[in-house]
Design brief:
By secondary structure, the protein is mainly α. 71% of the residues lie in helices and 0% in strands.
C-alpha cells in the first residue's frame, strides 16, 4: 500500500510540473486568402443550343423507357411460360 501511495504522489508532482513547464502561445489569426486570378462570371449558353438539346434528350429518354418496357414484358411472358410448363409437368407426373 505504501508503494501505491508513493507512486500516486510522485505522479501528481510530475503532472503539476508538466502543467507549469511552458505556457501555450496565443494563436495568430489567419489572413484572408487573395485570389490569384480575378474570377469571371460564367457566360450563359445560347438559347438555340439549349432548345436543340432538349428534344434530343427527351427522345433518348423515351426510347430508353420503351426498351425497358419491352424487356420487362418479355421477361414477364417468359416467366408465365415457365410457370405453365412446370404446371403441365406436375399434372403429367400426378397422372402416372
Amino acid at each position: 500500500m505504501n508503494k501505491l501511495l508513493a507512486t500516486l504522489i510522485a505522479g501528481f508532482f510530475a503532472v503539476g510540473a508538466f502543467a507549469q513547464a511552458t505556457p501555450a502561445t496565443p494563436a495568430t489569426p489567419a489572413k484572408p486568402a487573395t485570389p490569384a486570378v480575378a474570377a469571371t462570371p460564367a457566360t450563359p449558353a445560347p438559347a438555340a443550343a439549349k432548345a436543340e438539346v432538349k428534344p434530343e434528350a427527351k427522345a433518348a429518354k423515351e426510347e430508353k423507357k420503351e426498351e425497358k418496357k419491352a424487356s420487362h414484358k418479355a421477361a414477364k411472358e417468359a416467366k408465365k411460360e415457365t410457370k405453365a410448363e412446370a404446371k403441365a409437368e406436375k399434372k403429367a407426373g400426378d397422372a402416372k
